[in-house]
Design a protein that fits this description.
- It is a single chain.
- The protein has 202 residues and is of the alpha/beta class.
- It has two domains: 8-124, Rossmann fold, CATH 3.40.50; 138-193, Orthogonal Bundle (Arc Repressor Mutant, subunit A).
- Helices cover 50% and strands 12% of the residues.
- It is built from nine helices and five strands.
- It has helices at 16-28, 39-46, 65-75, 90-98, 111-124, 138-148, 153-160, 164-178, 183-193, and strands at 8-12, 32-36, 53-57, 81-85, 103-106.
- It has a five-stranded parallel sheet with strand order 2-1-3-4-5, with helices on both faces.
- Helix 4 (90-98) runs parallel beside helix 9 (183-193).
- Residues 126-134 and 192-198 have low confidence and may be disordered.
């Protein structure tokens, strides 16, 4: 990742080890990095100094990543934002993506994944994503929204009064139609674009 002028990244995470690792990785790749342990500190800095990219953890004590994203977008609407999320934070990550984040990076942070996401975000900037093609049936759309809410297959089967096998087939169809092969990519594909509204119950 080479730039004649160093791009400046604000990185927010309450875990010191993650901040150190991210700072080292990004700094070694020609990027200027300012790390913050609290979202409120980052927001205060943003009010006096802009950056080229904001990366924030979703779950933090005090102000969380979603609140930081919302406030940062008020100050700089075109600021690209990446969110860091663990598997259990998928519903919250979806909210962040709907609020304007470009993408999310799954924990534990992997060097190559982090650099790839950062490079992509810096290239995309505030690029507008196309609307999700209406490729899903109403039933598949309902299952999709339950998946985005963090529900597992057995729970969805119970809620939909269907067999686990039926839900597995529907989930497989959804992933095939959207061109993904795992839940994380499914969330990114749908949420980064525009999450379609769930259809009304029959």
């Amino acid at each position: 990742m080479t730039n004649s002028v160093k791009r400046h990244i604000f990185f927010v995470d309450d875990e010191p080890g993650i901040r150190r690792a991210a700072h080292g990785t990004l700094n070694q790749n020609g990027l200027k990095v300012s790390c913050f342990a609290r979202a409120a500190d980052c927001l205060k800095k943003l009010r006096s100094q802009t950056c080229d990219l904001l990366i924030t953890d979703v779950r933090m004590p005090g102000m969380d990543g979603l609140e930081l994203l919302t406030e940062a977008k008020r100050i700089f609407p075109s600021l690209p934002v990446l969110v860091i999320s663990g598997y259990g934070d998928i519903p919250m990550a979806v909210k962040a993506l709907k609020a304007g984040a470009l993408d999310f990076i799954e924990k534990p942070l992997d060097r190559s994944s982090l650099l790839s996401a950062v490079e992509s975000a810096l290239e995309q900037g505030s690029q507008t994503h196309p609307v999700l093609a209406e490729a899903l049936t109403k039933t598949e759309t309902k299952v999709l929204h339950l998946l985005l809410d963090g529900k597992r297959t057995k729970k969805i089967a119970k809620l939909r009064h269907r067999s686990v096998r039926t839900i597995e087939d529907q989930r497989s169809n959804i992933m095939h139609k959207l061109g993904v092969d795992n839940l994380v990519d499914l969330v990114k594909r749908v949420a980064v674009v525009r999450v379609i509204d769930p259809p009304e119950d029959e």
